Each structure stands twice: as structure tokens, then as C-alpha cells.
Amino acid sequence: MNNKVLDCRQVGFESSLIRLPADVTEAQLLHRIDQLNRDKNIDGFIVQVPLPKHIDEDKIILAIDPLKDVDGFSPASVGRMCLGMPTFVSATPNGIMELLARYQVDTVGKHCVVVGRSNIVGTPMSILMSRNSNPGNATVTLVHSRTPNMAEICRSADILIVAIGKPNFINESMVKEGAVVIDVGITRVEDSSRASGFRLVGDVEFEAVKNKCSFITPVPGGVGPMTRAALLLNTLKAQAMHHQAD
Fold first, then answer.
1. CA distance linking residue 124 with residue 120, whole number of Å
2. In a 10 Å sphere around its CB, with 0-12 CB exposed, 13-18 middle and 19+ buried, how is residue 129 labelled?
3. ∠45-51-55 over CA atoms, to 5°?
4. What per-residue string of b and e applies to 46-68 under the rule 16 or more CB within 10 Å gives b?
5. Which tens digit of pLDDT belongs to each residue from 16-27?
């Protein structure tokens, strides 16, 4: 969250970081969200997930005003995204689409394999890549933990987007020569050689795979910064919408 505050400061956005105790009740959190929804000085906000286990995450997401939902998690935002209508696209998929556009990665007619089916990354990513857009117009296969021939499917991918949350899950044998690999995963792994005691690794064995790819995103420093940039873009969009409404 501190990085998001710094990002806002860097681009000239006013921001506030509200920290609540881990034992905050669901009712207290819902009340705080209602206050933010009603505050005309706030264009957009996010509730950092995951939440404590005693709080219903779906109930919290539903409570956020869709016009201030710059995370793009609300059913209204997801529904409009599925229909190809203007909306807040969730930050990580939005950032990946921007990454593909900026590096002019050809996606038209390509086979895109998305590994992982979360509501935040995998599922929306599969929809965005299949839409009649640029980037987009890909033939998309979504694989997950119950897919029996996952390695074979991954090897057929021209574009491989991995968001399964398992460190070093994708190895060299699962990647096609010349493929574009987008690694969304980030996991702390113990490393006594680091002052912090850990290092960050992605879902892809980067060192083993990098020489086989035409493009690959590192972890850290790849998708993460694009997610934060997309969040700022959504916030700017929210401000413009509210200004037009006034």
C-alpha cells in the first residue's frame, strides 16, 4: 500500500491511507465504506484484499460504489467489461493489456493460454484477450488446477499468462520457443542470503525460461508496476466521470 501512496504523490494525486485493526468488525468496515461512498471529495478508493477471515469479502466489494470502484472488482464493473462497455477494468489485467500494447505484441489470431481462473486476474484476462480489440482477438484457453493436460496446453501457447500463485510452477518444458510469457505471480521464498530473509519469485522459472521466450516479464518489476499504473489510470477516469457529472 505504501507504494500506491508514493505513486499518487508522484503523479500529483491526493491520497489517504486508512489503516484499520485486524479485528475490525464487518459492520465497522461497511460503515467506513459508506462514508467514502458519500464523500464528494473522493473520486475513487480501494479496499486492500485479502481481508481478515471473519469478514465477507464479497459483501465488502458489493458495498463499494461502482463509480468509485477503481479496483474494478464490483459486479457492475465486471459485467460492463464482459460486454465491452466503458468501465473500470481490474488493475492487473488492465496493466497487462497496456504492456502488450506498448511493446506492440501481436495478439491477433494467436493462441493465448491463461493459467489460473481467479476473479481478479485469470478470468477477466481470458475475456479481454478474446475480445474484438487490439490487444485482443486471440484464441484463448483457460487452464487451472483441475486441467489434466496443462503442460501440453501451455506448450501450445503463443502468449502464456500465468496467474496461479505457485512459485516456479511453469518450467522450460512447458513453454513454446518464441512465446510471450507474462508472469503475474509473486511469492515470498525464504532466502538466508538476503538481508530481508526472503526473495520474491514468480510463477515462472525465469532463469530457465527467459532464453526461450521472445518476451518475458520479470518478478519483481514486471506486472506489479503495471498494476499500480493501471490503478492510477482508473482513478483518473473516475475523476473525469465525476467532473462530467457535476
1. 7
2. buried
3. 105
4. bbeeebeeebeeeebbebbbbbb
5. 999 999 999 999
Comparing C-alpha atoms, which of 148, 154, 201 is closest to residue 179?
A: 154
CATH superfamily for 104-220 is NAD(P)-binding Rossmann-like Domain (3.40.50.720)
User: CA triplet 118, 48, 25: central angle to 5 degrees?
Assistant: 110
pLDDT digits (tens, 9 = 90+) for 39-79: 999 999 999 988 999 999 999 999 999 999 999 999 999 99
Cell digits of residue 245:
457529472
Boundaries of every domain in the chain: 2-81+227-245, 104-220
Q: Does domain 2-81+227-245 have CATH number 3.40.50.620?
A: no
Q: What span, in angstroms and rounded, lies between the C-alpha atoms of 13 and 60?
A: 25
pTM: 0.92
Q: How far is CA 1 from the centre of its chain?
A: 15
Closest CA to 188 of 177, 175, 197, 179: 197
Active centre residues (catalytic)? 4, 48, 71
Domains 2-81+227-245 and 104-220 share a fold: yes
